[in-house]
């Protein structure tokens, strides 16, 4: 699965620039998950009830919830609109209305060929700006962290779907509960053979490798 995230106008960037570095980092990791994972868990991406194609990206950090509205264009293109911070689960109607207006404007301009695609700002450009070009030390560090985050969330989601505790999964896959806990919290070193055993032996799931 390979999606691409782009920004419509400057609404997301204005929201993003107001956040501190730790929140920005969590937003980036969630975006990486959305770009790379086929079935994105609803805790990160969910349809807004009562709208025609509007979705909400949810980023949780400490006790805060950061929400970013988006839609899909041609299946794999994710278009970002406005974002906001909210501690409660309920999404304010005025923010939804604003996002719907932006979504309608995006498609209206696109259909009229008024949008200059050369000027589109994308998530890829943002990552290159903040973490450097592919192959640099800072970019490698970011990508390692992003992959660790994705693995931890997919493992946690698969374990919960299987109705297993960390201890049960550890016993079934021949490893320790502490190792499962570290993986689910994106900590520690990942051993590929152990990871495969956890998914295939412990969870009866197949995992694939992609070499870029």
UniProtKB/TrEMBL annotation:
- Listed Pfam families: Gp49, HTH_3
Q: Which protein are we looking at?
A: HTH cro/C1-type domain-containing protein
A GO MF term = DNA binding
HTH cro/C1-type domain: which residues? 155-198
Q: Which SMART domains match?
A: HTH_XRE
Task: Check the record and name the CDD domains matching this protein.
Answer: HTH_XRE
Any stretches that span the bilayer, and where are they? none
């Amino acid at each position: 699965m390979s999606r691409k995230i782009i920004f419509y106008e400057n609404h997301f960037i204005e929201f993003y620039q107001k956040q501190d570095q730790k929140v920005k980092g969590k937003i980036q990791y969630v975006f990486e998950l959305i770009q790379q994972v086929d079935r994105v868990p609803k805790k990160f991406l969910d349809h807004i009830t009562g709208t025609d194609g509007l979705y909400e990206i949810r980023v949780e950090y400490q006790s805060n919830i950061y929400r970013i509205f988006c839609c899909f264009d041609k299946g794999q293109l994710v278009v970002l609109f406005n974002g906001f911070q909210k501690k409660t689960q309920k999404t304010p109607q005025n923010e939804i209305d604003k996002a719907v207006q932006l979504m309608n404007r995006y498609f209206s301009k696109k259909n009229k060929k008024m949008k200059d695609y050369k000027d589109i700002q994308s998530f890829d450009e943002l990552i290159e700006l903040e973490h450097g070009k592919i192959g640099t030390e800072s970019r490698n560090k970011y990508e390692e962290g992003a992959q660790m985050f994705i693995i931890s969330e997919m493992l946690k989601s698969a374990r919960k779907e299987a109705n297993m505790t960390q201890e049960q999964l550890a016993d079934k896959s021949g490893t320790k509960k502490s190792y499962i806990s570290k993986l689910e919290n994106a900590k520690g070193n990942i051993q590929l053979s152990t990871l495969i055993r956890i998914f295939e032996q412990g969870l009866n799931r197949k995992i694939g490798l992609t070499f870029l």
